[in-house]
Automatic annotation (TrEMBL):
Record-given protein name: Glycerophosphodiester phosphodiesterase
InterPro entries: GP_PDE_dom, PLC-like_Pdiesterase_TIM-brl
Top-level taxon in the UniProt lineage: Bacteria
Keyword Hydrolase applies: yes
Organism (species): Herbaspirillum huttiense subsp. lycopersici
């Protein structure tokens, strides 16, 4: 039901390195992590990049929406100094670069499709799935990344573009119709916020035969609690506190 790694570094290297950058993946490796979650968004000119926020200001200097910026405007921006001066010089990472790096280093991936705006949902799902499918042509089973998204529409588009790639439906609060949604997406797992999970909901998801993944668990006591509930895997910001092989 969950053939994939069980503990993942959130956004590349958790909060120890700039999120969604190669520095993040490197930091994960230094902490023994060979599995990561990251976010993928499209620029205006449809370059899939690793990015969480739909706008500049927090992890990138200046202002402006990612969906209204071309890759050429973004590629040279400082993407590491916001967290710590020692990361100065880090740049944004394209999906292609991220996939290449993770494949070369043996990092398993949960690729979160993160449309910058609702109107880009389908296209973001489609292009992300196509890029991943190209890189994983001929591979199957546990080697494949899991594509996830809060956007049902994006995941449907991903399914149409690359049906063989496994999908996880990502929700903050588990909705009433979760099972119908998972069926429609032919998903392998439900990804959810551990803060809203209950033992009975966890049991229902597991009884229905799906994988159950939680975000973002930052202490081991909580991890152990949800493990008792049947949770298969989780991502963490605290790769320094939680050992990659703790489960
Ligand atoms: O995929 C799990 C988690 O990353 C979802 O929330 O906002 O950190 O992308 P967020
Ligand atoms: Mg994410």
């Amino acid at each position: 039901m969950w053939p994939y790694p069980r503990i993942l570094a959130h956004r590349g290297g958790g909060t120890l390195a700039p999120e969604n950058t190669l520095a993040g993946f490197r930091c994960g490796l230094e902490h023994g992590y060979r599995a990561a979650e990251f976010d993928v968004m499209l620029t205006r000119d449809e370059v899939p990049i690793l990015m969480h926020d739909p706008q500049r200001g927090r992890t990138l200097p200046g202002a402006g929406k990612i969906a209204e910026s071309d890759w050429a405007e973004l590629r040279d921006l400082e993407a590491g100094a916001w967290l710590d001066a020692r990361f100065a010089g880090e740049r944004l990472c394209t999906l292609e670069q991220g996939l290449d790096f993770c494949l070369a280093e043996g990092i398993w991936m949960n690729v979160e499709i993160k449309p910058a705006a609702a109107e880009f949902a389908r296209r973001t799902g489609e292009l992300t799935a196509q890029a991943v499918a190209r890189r994983f042509a001929g591979k199957s089973g546990a080697a494949l990344p899991v594509l996830s998204s809060f956007s049902f529409e994006a995941l449907l588009a991903a399914k149409e573009a690359a049906p063989a790639l496994p999908r996880g439906y990502l929700v903050d609060v588990i909705p009433e119709d979760w099972q119908a949604r998972l069926e429609q997406l032919q998903a392998v797992a439900l990804h959810t916020n551990h803060k809203h999970l209950t033992p009975s909901l966890a049991a229902a998801v597991k009884t229905a035969g799906y994988g159950l993944f939680c975000y973002t668990v930052n202490d081991m006591a909580r991890a152990e609690e949800i493990r008792q509930w049947g949770v298969d895997a989780f991502c963490t910001d605290r790769i320094d506190l939680i050992a990659a092989d703790a489960w």
